[in-house]
Amino acid sequence: MDPAPTLDTEVAIIGGGPAGLAVGANLRRRNIPCKIFERSERIAPTWHRHYRRLHLHTPKESSGLPYKPFPADYPRYPSRQQVVDYLEDYAATFALRPHFSEAVTTVRPLGANRWELITSKAKYTAGAVVIANGLGCDRNLPTWPGMKSFRGVIVHSKDYVAGDSYRGQRVLVAGFGNSGAEIAIDLWEHGANPAISVRSPTTIIPRDLGGIPIVKIANAFSFLPAALVDCFFRPILRLVIGDLRPYGIQTPTEGPMVQVEKSGRVPVLDIGTIKLIKQGKLKIMPGIQRVTEDGIIFENGTAANFDAIILATGLRPRLDFLRVEQASGWQREPRTIPAKGRAALPNLYFCGFHVPATGMLREIAIEARNIAAHIAANR
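RESULT FIELD:
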């Protein structure tokens, strides 16, 4: 059956999460018509699915989307549910009504600054397209030898809900990013016996320094060269975090700001993981060499038994619908996507694909404003 008749819109936004909503609100403020396409059945599906313990890792005062701050009665670091409530209220405030359960399957240029979108329900033409489905669409799944033989449970962090079902179990968290660090805390708080597999050197910074959110401090110094900021902060971070090498964690040679600038890898914001490690309640294990029926053989040759493995191995964007020559490169290396809301191609924009040290929601707000301004100037 052929798709439904073509429906035109000035701007098509792909994704109904924070980035898509922020762009939509900015366009509404400029009276620019837009349509938001969301493949799921609700606003911000990723935030709805996040594990229950999750809190925003950046302070609410620097994380609000344009024209609407987080509520004053929210804590400094809002919970997952509070972020969901905020985003749903944000959509209602700006009368943003995404096309729910409508997956975009094809986006291609038609020439003369026109784009065609084919969705699961219809065809559309648009003057501009904003891709705002973010970095967290698909799971990065490792392929260690022996995974299929493991008799326990293997779950990706995207599917992890809470630690109560792991009570009394030996659980290995594979990966030491922000999700892996917080999931390990959640497991311990629910009575599991967790360990973290750390494959490579990891930068860890306190979430707060002297009662001030570290992200606020990073924002204040963001006008300086990254290497200079690292020189200033490295001795302080070493004093606060301490030497973690005796526990099995190596520190990168580059400082956190340079690391973000060069590789896009954000530091781990410590919210209690380091305390558990130093207390011996959370073990650090080397990288994984192979999986056995009962556990893991690590890269240093040691072995340990586990009942479950949580894959905190990251997420990746989904751009397979984009029919332009550059798409495969952007898919492989999202850092090559133009930042700050700059046009990637004429009338093609990305929002929410860069995670700076100063916080993703703050960056989304900046990008959304820039995208709307650029679209308005080129109408």
